Amino acid sequence: MSCSFTEEQEALVVKSWSVMKKNAADLALKFFLKIFEIAPSAKKLFPFLRDSDLPVEKNPKLKPHAMAVFLMVSIIKQCIQSSFLMIIK
């Protein structure tokens, strides 16, 4: 399966990430809190939340997990950008 981006889509990903990475820690946490607000049952998918009596927003393991996910997104963005540059060369 192949996934290719147009120049406009690639530029949008790069621009969006550039804005988001300035406040990545807070946005990452807000992202997960929004997921749990919309789908509270999603908390069951995370052992560190499932086995905790703390409110989700107070759980000390959530923010590091959220940042790890955002780091992966950053790496994927770099791969997309690199792949796109290889294609147009």
TrEMBL record:
Residue ranges of every copy of the Globin domain listed in the record: 4-89
Superkingdom as given in the UniProt entry: Eukaryota
Catalysed reactions, as listed in the record: Fe(III)-heme b-[protein] + nitric oxide + H2O = Fe(II)-heme b-[protein] + nitrite + 2 H(+)
Keyword check for Iron: yes
Gene3D superfamilies: Globins (1.10.490.10)
Cofactor(s) demanded: heme b
Keywords: Heme, Iron, Metal-binding, Oxidoreductase
A Pfam family assignment: Globin
Molecular function in Gene Ontology: heme binding; metal ion binding; oxidoreductase activity; oxygen binding
Sequence similarity: Belongs to the plant globin family.
Listed name of the protein: Globin domain-containing protein
Organism: Linum tenue
Lineage: Eukaryota, Viridiplantae, Streptophyta, Embryophyta, Tracheophyta
